[in-house]
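Posting this for the archive.
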Amino acid sequence: MEGPRALKKGELRSAIELANSVFRKDSAYKMEDEFPLLFSESNLENLRAFVDAGKVVSLVGMSVNDVIIMGCKTRVVCIGSVCTHPEYRNKGLASKLMEDAANKAVQDGASLMLVSGDRGLYRRFGCVNAGIYRWYSVKRSQLNAPGGGFVIRKYREEDVFDIVKLHQLEPVRFVRTYDDFKALLEAKRLCDQISETYVALRNGQVVAYVCLQLPRSRDLPLAILEYGGSRFSIFKTLGDLMDEVGTESAIVRTTSAEVELDHLMVCAGAKRSAGDFMGTVKLIDVGRFLEDVDGYVTEVVGERRRRDLSIRYEQSSQCLSFEYMDRRLKIEGADNITAFAFGSVEKRQQPQTRKSELENLLDAIFPMPLVDYGLNYV
């Protein structure tokens, strides 16, 4: 048996057949159509596998992407399509592939791993539920009559340039090229569900876009899991979207960086709840991540405080320490560090009544917003 290693030319079809046999056994949909950027010849290096007699028997799919978080660019690796042929299970192959994938990702400059699952395999690897997101649930009857002169329609190929430009304005986002965006939109899949993308227009100009999961019946809500552009236009056309797809309710998911849509939804009486990332998360290179976001840290606390704020990470002990004005705080373990950096619903801490200046500084910096999958789900 060979591995862990990247797929070689001619092995992609075997990997696709394995993934389809595990995830799409009784489905008309195929993994290669739903995830065109993952299962492509150009991504062979990121398809990590064990191969036995020319047959892929265990697979970890990964895509490496740049993301923007509050003006700072860092790199993430998205992990998905993790599967093993039934005859080769319980041999530790997937665990070895996860280690291999993380090492490859770090070599490629990634600091953060996003996994589309919450299995024991990922927990043992140090992944944790992290990130703070908001879910809004709203009924058609709660929305006022449309206003503002906005109209909606399904996106067209000529809209992709406008969609890319609107996406570039988002403070927390994946970096996508035109070609990537076009391929992802054409796949019509959003977080493993059938999807459609609509644009909102005013006076013929595209001012927003929304990517939504189509409801399977009128009794179920549509789910908006990615959007960009004018929040007011999205809010004002939400009722039209419900009418378009034939449902009476909607759910909208936002990152913790969202302000305007939060205000609009709450004022409309939408039910708001907190959630975490759609899967599990791990900082795989804490030192690099801290370097990447140092500009954000400095902007939040100011140059003088940043000079006096010591931030150190010890890789060997997995210990992150902060020191300021003779006060010190230590966080140990990959899961705790990741949860501290991005917040965690499952690891939520009780608020303290009195805090040191160091703790107040860290509260201003963390948790940082965490990028959401949207179209980049694998």
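The CA atoms of residues 342 and 367 lie 4 Å apart. The radius of gyration is 22 Å.
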